[in-house]
Amino acid sequence: MHRFCLLALLSVCLAAQPQQAKPYVVLVALGGFRYDYVHKYGAKHLSALAAAGATADAGMIPAYPSLTIPNLYTLVTGLSPEHHGIVADKFYDPSRKQLYGPESDGSWYGGTPLWVLAEKQGMRTACLFWPGCQVEIDGGRPSLKSSGSLPEQKRIDQVVAWLQLPAPERPHFIALYLPAVDQAGRQYGPDSPQTAAAVTHADQQVGDLWARLNALQLPIDLIVLSDHGMEREQGPWIDLSQYSNLANFTTVGSLLYPNSEAAAEKAYQDLKIKTDAFTVYRRKRVPAPLRYDNPRVGDPVIVANGPYAIRARADAGPPNLGMNGYDPAAMPSMRALFLAVGPDIRPGTKLAPFENVNIYPLIAKILGLDAPQADGTLNVLSKLLKNNQADDTP
Asked: CA nearest 37: which of 225, 272, 219, 218?
């Protein structure tokens, strides 16, 4: 038995050795950082990095709904929410008869996150405050991850410390989430002095991180992006229960889960003629471009027609001054930040707006990983790579 264990350990070490020679990718998500904040608030470090590498000046297009957890998970799986199953920040699963929340176990998550993909192919990874990284998904976890709360500057310090580990222990993929810009935008609105200050602080953090990464003299590619944009909310809450009796529904936010087909159809008929603030669909008739056909989204489905705060039932408190979650195709302010810089990135690359499902095959390509088919394709972003031989497989 002892000999078998030694042989197994040796085989793992030998499998990992080729991966140690590959590049490193640090993926930083700045929560709620709208694509135009760089210019709007004079983010000089982000501007300099974008000029030195690749950027999408008109933004990256988040998946619908343009919410934090669904999009952070889309970024690391290449799947839209209807396919990976995380359809909102909070939702109900009718088959499980359970509510999803950030502490839910890994069986809620579909797809193969980048850290699991890499670990299965012998590459160490690390994760800081990214949805899903605390639980086992598809049989894997990151080698290194956050535990408990950690101030944002300490998160930067942790990334650098991980990259200072001896080569066999060093993660080649690190995912880091920083939420301060999102928090300011929600509380005070996207045009507020508080959001401007949060953007300036995040800009300084990224500039500091890039300087410290350069000092390590490792082949590190830095990708800085965001989960979604932000818009100023208009008007008071819109309560769906004012338009239809929802006694036969389980509700989460604006999501409606009927206890019968009759209840779903009755609510649909009630809601479809009441207001111009939203459009209501039966789930199977949700427009295909939204990619939002999953039992976890409920039925009927409410799609806001503007920056309105919609909920199923009345609750305490006014809505936030800043809101997101809207259709990016109808509301460009939902678009997210994207830039990339490093030894594998072609300097001066300008990208048209692209969907964030394409980040997954891009990072897999840089790391030399064999990735499963996803909703994105490498062809969309291959031009930003110095070695831009794209795969033909979508």
From this structure: 225
CATH code of the region 238-319 = 3.30.1360.180
What is the second-level CATH architecture of the domain 21-231+329-384?
Answer: 3-Layer(aba) Sandwich (3.40)
> Domain limits of the chain?
21-231+329-384, 238-319
Whether pTM exceeds 0.90: yes
Cβ neighbors of 366 (< 8 A, separation 6 or more) are 23, 25, 221, 344, 385
> pLDDT averaged over consecutive 10-residue blocks of the chain (394 residues)?
44 57 96 98 98 98 98 98 98 97 90 98 97 95 86 94 97 98 98 98 98 98 98 96 97 98 98 92 98 98 97 93 98 98 98 98 98 97 84 41
